[in-house]
Design a protein that fits this description.
This is Cas12f1-like TNB domain-containing protein. InterPro entries: Cas12f1-like_TNB (IPR010095). One of its GO terms (molecular function) is DNA binding. Keywords: DNA-binding. The chain has 15 helices and 25 strands. With 690 residues, the protein is an alpha+beta fold. The chain folds into three domains: 281 residues, no CATH class; 204 residues, Nucleotidyltransferase, domain 5; 53 residues. Strands 11, 12, 13, 14, 15, 16, 20, 21, 23 and 24 form a ten-stranded mixed sheet that branches. Strands 1, 4, 8, 9 and 10 form a five-stranded antiparallel sheet that branches. Strands 3-2-7-6-5 form a five-stranded antiparallel sheet. Strand 12 and strand 13 form a beta hairpin. It starts with a strand and ends with a strand.
Length: 690
C-alpha cells in the first residue's frame, strides 16, 4: 500500500517552566510574561521589514523570484528575505540573536508573499471589471473565475471576490478615478495603494530557528520537552538578559505515539502560553481516480450536511436512496441568538466610546465635581461592554469549532462505514447565497470552510480522498430523469406540491419526491464519479477539485436484505420446523390441522402453568403481580422491561461504543454499515459532458 504523510497541529498549553541555569521553577504568569516580551520584539522587527518593503518595486522583485545574485529564491521565507538584501534591523538599545532575527524575517516574508496573492486576486478582478459591479451576470462571473484560475490557480470564494470588488470601488470613489481608466483600459491599481501594510501577529515562529534557539524532544508518550531561549526583561540590552528555559508540554490524545514532532509556534492568549505543535504521521495514500463507491454531501441551512452514497457500475451511477442527514437546527438557533447578542453589545460599546470621547479628561479637570464621576462611569461601562463582547465572540468561536469537527467526524465515519473511497463536496468558491436577505445572513453564518478543512484533515488520516465539484445547478434539475429537460419543482412539503417553497423537491416528469438537499447530494455524487478523470490536484496545498461538469442520471438500486434478517424471521415464525412442501403429493392434506395449545391470562388463583384455555389479548387495568424491584430509583407499575428489545442507536464515532456526537441535541443519521448493492435492471441515461 502506498503511504503518505499528513501534517497536523495540536494546540498545547504550557503551565510552567524551569530556568535551566539555576533550576528555578517559574509559574504560568511569569512564563507568559517572558514569552510576550519575545513576541513583542519579533513583532516590532517584522513590522519594520514589511513597512519598508510595502511598495510596487519591492513586491515586483519578490514576485520575480530571483535574488540579487541571480539565483532563484528559496522556499524558506527568512532565506528569501536575506537573499534579496532585506535583512531585518535590530531595534536601538535591544540585543537579539541572529536566530531571533530569523523568526522575525520569516514572519515578514509570509506577510509579503500573502500580499502577492492578494495582488494577483485584485489584478484579476480589475482586468475583468463588469459593467455593473453590484450585479454581475453569468458571463461576468465566468470571466472573473477564469482569470482567477489563471492567476492564482482557483480556490477564491465568491465572498472574497465581492469584498475585493467593494474595496476597489471604494478606492475609486475616494480618489475620483474611473474603472475604465485611460484609453478604455482598466485602472492599474496595486494592492499597496488600496490598503496599508498588514498588522503583524504577536507570535514566535520557531520553525525558522535551529538548535541555538530551540530544541524539542519527546519526553514520554504523553509529553514533550521544549528548550528555548527567552528574554529576562522587556528590552534585553545584552546577552546576559537571555536565558534557557525548559517547558514541559503535555501532548493531547490526538498526537500518536509514533508521530514526528516539528518546531512549534509560541503565542500568549488570555494570559496563557499556547504551543501550536505541528506533527507528521504516515497515512495511506488516497488516489484521485479509480473510485467506484463514493459519498456526496450537500450544504443546507439547518441541515448542515445531507449526503447519499453512490456506486459507479457499468458506466452509470447507482444509489440506494438512503439520505444521510446531520441536522443542526438547535445549534444554528443558538448561534443566531449569540450573533444578535454580539451585535447588540458591539453597538453598546461603540455608543459608550462616543460618549467617552465627548467627556475628555481635560473637561473633567475643569469640572471635577460633575464630569469626573461621569467620565469614570462611562469608562467602566465601555470596558464592561467590551469585555462582554469578547466573551460572546469567544463563545461563538468555540461553538463553531466544536460543530465543524463534530460534523466532519460524522461525515468521515459515514464514508468509512459505507465502504466509500472518496467524499465529494460542493465547491465553496462557486457557491453563492441568493435570495432574501435573511437567507443570505443564515448562509453567511455557516461554518462551511471549517467543516471542509476538518473533513480533509480527518479523511487524510483514514485514506479517503476529498474532492470538490461545481455547485451550480445541483438543486435545479432532477437527478433521475435527466438534466435540462425536467426542472424540479420546489415545494414546502410533500403534501403541498402546488405551493412554492424550498425544502421539498418534486419532479412532474418521473414523479420523484424527496428532500431538496438529498436530490442535490445525488447530483453531486453523480458529478464526482462521472468526472473523476478531470480531477485537478493543487501542488501547493494538495486540494483536489473537479472543474469540468459531467452530467448523468442516478439510478435507484436497492440493497438486498441481510441473511440474518431472514434467519431471525424464520425463528420467530417457526418456518424452519414446518418447511413448505415441494411436491404435489406433499400438498395433499391427509388430516385435520392440530390445534396449538392456548393459555389463559394467569391469575393469582390460577398460575400460568394451569392455564390452557383461549388466550385473552385484553391488557389488564392494573398489574396482577408486583412490578420487579429496581436497584436504583422507582418506576410505576406496568409492563416489565424487556431485555431483548431493539437498542437505541445514536450517531457518533464508529469506534465509540457510546455513540456520541459531541452535541446531545444534534439529530443525525446513525453510522451503520449496510450490505452490498443489488444488481437490479434499472435504466439510466448515458453520461454526457457539459
Amino acid at each position: 500500500m502506498l503511504m503518505g504523510e499528513v501534517v497536523s497541529t495540536a494546540s498545547c498549553r504550557a503551565f510552567r517552566a524551569v530556568l535551566e541555569a539555576s533550576g528555578e521553577m517559574l509559574g504560568e504568569r511569569t512564563l507568559a510574561e517572558r514569552v510576550s516580551w519575545l513576541a513583542a520584539v519579533i513583532r516590532q522587527v517584522a513590522a519594520g521589514v514589511v513597512a519598508g518593503r510595502w511598495n510596487r518595486a519591492d513586491l515586483d522583485r519578490l514576485d520575480a523570484g530571483v535574488g540579487l545574485d541571480g539565483r532563484a529564491l528559496p522556499a524558506k521565507g527568512w532565506m528569501a528575505v536575506r537573499r534579496l538584501g532585506w535583512g531585518a534591523a535590530t531595534p536601538e538599545g535591544v540585543y537579539i540573536s541572529d536566530r531571533v532575527r530569523r523568526c522575525a524575517e520569516e514572519e515578514a516574508a509570509r506577510a509579503l508573499r500573502l500580499a502577492l496573492h492578494r495582488r494577483a486576486v485584485l489584478a484579476a478582478i480589475t482586468a475583468t471589471w463588469p459593467a455593473d459591479p453590484g450585479r454581475r451576470t453569468d458571463a461576468d462571473w465566468s470571466a472573473v473565475r477564469a482569470a482567477l484560475n489563471t492567476a492564482v490557480g482557483g480556490g477564491v470564494s465568491t465572498a472574497l471576490i465581492r469584498n475585493r470588488t467593494r474595496q476597489f470601488r471604494t478606492y475609486l470613489d475616494e480618489h475620483g478615478l474611473s474603472p475604465a481608466g485611460q484609453n478604455g483600459q482598466a485602472s492599474v491599481v496595486d494592492v499597496v495603494e488600496v490598503e496599508g501594510p498588514p498588522v503583524m501577529a504577536a507570535q514566535v515562529l520557531l520553525a525558522a530557528a535551529d538548535r541555538q534557539l530551540i530544541t524539542l524532544e519527546r519526553a514520554s508518550g504523553t509529553g514533550a520537552r521544549l528548550r528555548v531561549q527567552l528574554p529576562l526583561c522587556a528590552r534585553p540590552a545584552t546577552r546576559r538578559d537571555w536565558a534557557w528555559h525548559i517547558l514541559p508540554v503535555p501532548l493531547p490524545p490526538q498526537v500518536p505515539a509514533d508521530a514526528s514532532l516539528r518546531s512549534p509556534t509560541l503565542r500568549v492568549v488570555d494570559g496563557q502560553v499556547r504551543v501550536d505543535l505541528p506533527f507528521t504521521m504516515a497515512v495511506p495514500y488516497a488516489p484521485a481516480t479509480g473510485h467506484t463507491v463514493a459519498i456526496g454531501f450537500d450544504w443546507g441551512i439547518n441541515t448542515l450536511l445531507v449526503g447519499t452514497v453512490g456506486r459507479l457500475h457499468d458506466g452509470r451511477v447507482e444509489g440506494d436512496g438512503r439520505p444521510l442527514i446531520y441536522d443542526t437546527t438547535t445549534i444554528s438557533a443558538k448561534l443566531h441568538r449569540l450573533r444578535g447578542h454580539r451585535e447588540a453589545l458591539a453597538a453598546k460599546r461603540d455608543h459608550y466610546a462616543t460618549l467617552q470621547a465627548g467627556l475628555t479628561p481635560s473637561d473633567a479637570a475643569r469640572h471635577p465635581a460633575r464630569d469626573a464621576a461621569r467620565y469614570r462611569e462611562v469608562a467602566a461601562l465601555h470596558e464592561r461592554a467590551d469585555r462582554e463582547h469578547a466573551r460572546v465572540c469567544a463563545r461563538i468561536r468555540h461553538l463553531n469549532n466544536a460543530l465543524s469537527w463534530s460534523a466532519a467526524r460524522w461525515a468521515v465515519d459515514q464514508a468509512t462505514a459505507l465502504g466509500a473511497s472518496v467524499i465529494y463536496l460542493e465547491d465553496l468558491a462557486t457557491l453563492e447565497a441568493r435570495g432574501h436577505r435573511r437567507g443570505n445572513a443564515a448562509l453567511s453564518g455557516q461554518v462551511r470552510g471549517r467543516v471542509v478543512h476538518a473533513i480533509r484533515h480527518l479523511a487524510a488520516k483514514t485514506g479517503l480522498a476529498v474532492v470538490t465539484v461545481p455547485a451550480r445547478g445541483t438543486s435545479k434539475y432532477c437527478p433521475r430523469c435527466g438534466t435540462g429537460t425536467s426542472p424540479l419543482h420546489h415545494t414546502p412539503a410533500p403534501d403541498r406540491l402546488t405551493q412554492r417553497g424550498w425544502k421539498w423537491a418534486h419532479c412532474p416528469h418521473c414523479g420523484l419526491s424527496c428532500d431538496r438537499d438529498q436530490a442535490a447530494a445525488e447530483r453531486i455524487v453523480s458529478r464526482g464519479l462521472l468526472a473523476q478523470h478531470h480531477t485537478h490536484t493543487d501542488r501547493a496545498t494538495g486540494t483536489r477539485t473537479i472543474r469540468t461538469i459531467v452530467e448523468g442520471n442516478l439510478a435507484r438500486a436497492r440493497r438486498p436484505r441481510k441473511p440474518t434478517r431472514a434467519a431471525r424471521r424464520a425463528r420467530h415464525t417457526r418456518t424452519d420446523l414446518h418447511p413448505r412442501p415441494q411436491t404435489r403429493q406433499d400438498r395433499t392434506k391427509t388430516g385435520p390441522t392440530p390445534k396449538r395449545p392456548t393459555r389463559q391470562r394467569p391469575t393469582p388463583e390460577r398460575p400460568a402453568e394451569l392455564s390452557t384455555t383461549k388466550t385473552v389479548s385484553q391488557v389488564p387495568d392494573r398489574r396482577l403481580v408486583p412490578a420487579p424491584t429496581l436497584a436504583v430509583g422507582q418506576r410505576p407499575a406496568g409492563q416489565a422491561p424487556q431485555a431483548n428489545g431493539p437498542t437505541a442507536v445514536r450517531t457518533g464515532l464508529v469506534r465509540d461504543s457510546h455513540q456520541r456526537t459531541g452535541f446531545h441535541h444534534v439529530k443525525a443519521t446513525p453510522v451503520l454499515a449496510l450490505a452490498e448493492y443489488g444488481s437490479g435492471r434499472h435504466q439510466a441515461t448515458p453520461a454526457r459532458n457539459a
